[in-house]
Amino acid sequence: MIEFTLPTMTCGHCVRAVTETVQRIDAAAQLQIDLPAHQVRIDSQQPAERFAAALAEEGYQPA
Prior knowledge:
Radius of gyration: 10 Å
Order of helices and strands: EHEEH
Number of domains: 1
């Protein structure tokens, strides 16, 4: 399980963008988002670094 805190994830649009970004890396990834806590949990075999880089590119730099 990969966990990130994304301080700039603040609304439904952000949730959609984060979800789409994760699914581009791994379409089969299981995703749990806690918007009030700004946290995302990703269940995937892909390395965390791939997700971190893609999320940062989209403007959601993991803290």
